[in-house]
Design brief:
The complex is a heterodimer of chains A (112) and B (132). Chain A is an all-alpha fold and 112 residues long. Chain A has 4 helices and no strands. Chain A has helices spanning 3-24, 30-56, 64-81, 90-109. In chain A, helix 1 packs antiparallel against helix 4, helix 2 (30-56) runs antiparallel to helix 3 (64-81) and helix 2 packs parallel to helix 4. Chain A is elongated. The model of chain A has no long low-confidence stretch (mean pLDDT 89). By secondary structure, chain B is mainly alpha-helical. Chain B has 5 helices and no strands. Chain B has helices spanning 3-30, 35-56, 60-86, 107-121, 128-131. In chain B, helix 1 (3-30) runs antiparallel to helix 2. The longest helix of chain B is centred in the N-terminal third of the chain and has 28 residues, at 3-30. The relative contact order of chain B is 0.16. Classes of the chains: A mainly alpha (112), B mainly alpha (132).
Amino acid sequence: MNPTLTTAVVLYLGLVALVALAAAANAPVQAAARSGNVVGRVCVAVVVAVDLVSLLRGHRPVDLATHLGYAAAAVALPFILTWPGARTSYLLIALSAAVTAVVLVRLGQTWA
Amino acid sequence: MTESGRLLVGVYAVFAVAAGARSIVQIATRWHVAPLAYLLSLVSAVVYVVATLALRRTGPVARRVAIAACTFELVGVLAVGTLSVTRPELFPDQTVWSAFGQGYGFVPLVLPVLGLLWLAKVPSDSPSSRSA
């Protein structure tokens, strides 16, 4: 777990949520919201990968099961919210980014 | 489906994941501490999954399932919320519905109401309006 990286990704996801909300309100930032969403997913995957590597190297959080639950949710939630084949709305992208940011914060809190 | 409908289904999906992950972890690691509370967490997770899938689909059967899931969820959060306040000894640990969903910003209390209102707004004789 890298606290600096996690904080940066949480802030980035907050920005993506704001841009997606603006896109939902018909501001001309739809492309930025879509690309920001994709980049956000990659960043979350990197955070979780770093976290898993740290776990494999021997770090043990107090509540490992809860921590792994948050790690799985951080990766899975964006895919569940933007269901394959479904037309994704900008409101859903905003919701996905905001919720994933909260899950990452909880992931960091359960690291110790 | 309208933007508001997509957002509603999205929030339901978030709660399906949150309640599901919570109940799995609770049952797998602390079942002996509060079996009733953890069983209720599992029930709420299943209801959220059913509601999410039913709200996503079109047609009269999906609509009836969605209404039943939202109604069950509303009754559940009101019953468990009331019991958790009046008989706290029944719930040694928190569930999603404890104290009317206070741990989740009372969203579990508001969500079934919004779901039922949305279902009432969508005409039952035109399922295509939910996929428009």
